[in-house]
Design goal:
alpha+beta; 6 helices; Extracellular Endonuclease, Chain A; 12 strands; two-stranded antiparallel sheet
């Protein structure tokens, strides 16, 4: 709440987590001028949509030494409504009281376990998204593992986690009124369900930005637990920033000249070898 009242501190956090500038949304705002807003906390920043009642994207800087400092620490399960949002824009626990979807982290708590406050602040429901179990605990978790491995290998990386709402597959974001909603037991159907999710990873070497991006469909089909099985799905999910921008209607890292970004479209330049099994097999049949 203190950060929410300090615009200067918010801009410092934007610069920390997004050195390429605040991602710019081109989607027509719906529901009023305050329907979408920046929500900043020390560990990460997010762009929240009050009509969808979830983050459109989140971003955070991940440092290898901080990942190592958080190794071995436990989850802090403190899911709660975000106090910065008005009641109409904020998801609450009853919205996620339904049998299908996980409360999936956009910015995951494991990346921020070196700092208990930063970790706890990943559990605000504004940072949650309606993810199918085998996505959340499967390939999405594998991508989170890779992010931490890369932070340790390359010292610093910048991660953007985004939701795509494109069920009509026209390669553009669906209107908010057309978004699918969770069938919560409160019968209100307030929280929107993304069709896909994306992750963009950036790092800088010798003055050149390196990037790799992934898009995964939000479905509950099996994609594998061990790297030998899930790895081909991860490789198939590699995409370009342009492709993400077209479907999400978000311009990524707008202040970085694209000529200064070397994008990997086949995994080159990034060690793609999973070191840990995900938890897909723990999902209900």
């Amino acid at each position: 709440m203190a950060i929410a009242a300090d615009s200067g501190l918010q801009q410092q956090l934007v610069s920390k987590h997004l050195p390429g500038g605040l991602h710019i949304g081109s989607h027509a705002k719906q529901g009023g001028p305050d329907n979408e807003q920046l929500l900043a906390q020390d560990g990460y920043i997010m762009w929240h949509d009050g009509d969808l009642r979830t983050a459109v994207w989140t971003a955070h800087k991940l440092i290898g030494d901080e990942v190592t400092a958080g190794d071995g620490k436990d989850r802090i399960n403190c899911f709660r409504t975000d106090p910065r949002l008005n009641a109409d824009h904020a998801a609450n626990k009853s919205d996620y009281d339904e049998p299908v979807f996980d409360q999936g982290h956009m910015t995951n708590d494991r990346d921020l376990r070196d700092d208990a406050v930063e970790q706890m602040n990943t559990y605000v429901l504004s940072n949650m998204s309606a993810q199918h179990c085998r996505l959340n605990r499967g390939i999405w978790l594998t991508l989170e593992y890779l992010g931490r491995d890369w932070a340790k290998a390359y010292d610093v990386i910048y991660i953007t986690n985004g939701a795509i709402f494109d069920f009509n597959s026209r390669d553009a974001r669906d209107k908010d009124k057309s978004a699918a909603r969770m069938g919560s037991r409160n019968q209100k159907g307030r929280v929107a369900v993304p069709s896909h999710y994306y992750k963009n990873f950036m790092r800088k070497e010798d003055g050149q930005w390196l990037s790799i991006s992934f898009v995964v469909e939000n479905h509950n089909g099996p994609r594998g637990r061990a790297w030998a099985d899930v790895g081909p799905h991860v490789m198939a999910a590699i995409t370009t920033m342009d492709a993400i921008e077209e479907r999400s209607e978000v311009s990524l890292h707008p202040s970085i000249d694209r000529a200064q970004i070397t994008e990997s479209i086949n995994g080159a330049g990034w060690v793609l070898n999973g070191t840990k099994d995900n938890l897909e097999t723990g999902c209900p049949s």
